[in-house]
Amino acid sequence: MNKPPLTLYLAAPRGFCAGVDRAIKIVELALEKWGAPVFVRHEIVHNKFVVDGLRALGAVFVEDLDDVPLNRPVIFSAHGVPKAVPAAAQARNMVYVDATCPLVSKVHIEAERHYDAGLQMIMIGHAGHPETIGTMGQLPEGAILLVETESDVANLRVTDAQSLAYITQTTLSVDDTKAIVAALKQRFPAIKGPHKEDICYATTNRQASIKAIAGKIDALLVIGAPNSSNSQRLVEVGRAAGCAYAQLVQRATDIDWRALEGIGAVGITAGASAPEILVNEVIAAFEERFTTTVELAETTREAVEFKVPRILRVGT
């Protein structure tokens, strides 16, 4: 049986970012150093395949510090945690390793700096996301106002319109965030922003790579987890860029082949917490059903690397 022809546009950059790579290494090195079990507060990154792999090595994932035995180390996820969490670990004399992405930590520092300067903080982010919870938890309760949409800006009640600053979650849609920032600046002309964009390089690059291929493809598949903010944003960016069919899949088994009947070109990308092995799995699934031509659509190259904490470095 002849297989229909199909061009796969493989977006690049895609998949693991430096913060995710570092967080996974932290768990692996902790298991080497202390043996199993090593406890991790929340999923280290939002990807079931990654989490299951680390669980098989001896990592135990919990949502509360109270679920960690006092004699075992605990790792805080890449999304960051409220200040109260490491404070509680210190109070119990627990060994802990903070795997917060350095670019998330940068936002934490910004928030504290503005707060110490007497500015009221506004955060652009998604309510309930671990990163938002962690960032807002850097300051006293109520010190940071959260906005998710442009309409939220109109309803903000601030103490002093002349003493405001904003920060953002690192995994947002670049375009949506620009619109919200514009609304903030229009309503509060004196508001201060970050010296450099809070949305991280990896989020920005992955969204840009989708825009670059959107005009060439009939469908877009984003490999990532449903609870991964940056992966969900990639789907939204694809749809906004004109992809009539843009879908999030965790594995090749999630692909809806009926929806792809009769198409000639598919774009494939992966969220920042999705490993390349899952990309290869999806490509293999297409090769079983189509005569495929794979084209790499690279918009930039990434060379960012973050060191693991000192406690896990060899010779320290």
Q: Stretches where pLDDT falls below 50 for ≥5 residues?
A: none
Q: Which architecture of the largest domain would the CATH scheme give at its second level?
A: 3-Layer(aba) Sandwich
Name the CATH homologous superfamily of the largest domain: 4-hydroxy-3-methylbut-2-enyl diphosphate reductase, catalytic domain
| Large-scale geometry | flat
Helix content: 25-40%
Report the top-level CATH class of the largest domain. Alpha Beta
Give, in order, the helices and strands.
EHEHEEHEHEHEHEHHEHEEHE
Instruction: Kindly state the number of beta strands.
Output: 12
Main beta-sheet strand count, sense and barrel state: 5 strands, parallel
The tally of helices reads 10
Ends distance = 61 Å
Overall pLDDT score: 96
Strand order of the largest sheet: 10-9-11-1-12
Briefly note the CATH topology name of the largest domain. Answer: Cobalt-precorrin-4 Transmethylase, domain 1
How would you portray this structure in words?
With 316 residues, this protein is α/β, with parallel strands linked by helices. It folds into three domains: 5-16 and 201-298, Cobalt-precorrin-4 Transmethylase, domain 1; 18-101, Rossmann fold, CATH 3.40.50; 103-187, 4-hydroxy-3-methylbut-2-enyl diphosphate reductase, catalytic domain (Cobalt-precorrin-4 Transmethylase, domain 1). Helices cover 36% and strands 19% of the residues. It is built from ten helices and twelve strands. The chain has helices spanning 18-34, 48-57, 84-91, 102-116, 130-136, 150-154, 174-187, 201-213, 229-240, 276-289, and strands at 5-12, 38-41, 59-62, 74-76, 96-98, 120-124, 144-147, 164-168, 219-223, 245-249, 265-270, 291-298. Helix 4 (102-116) runs parallel beside helix 5.
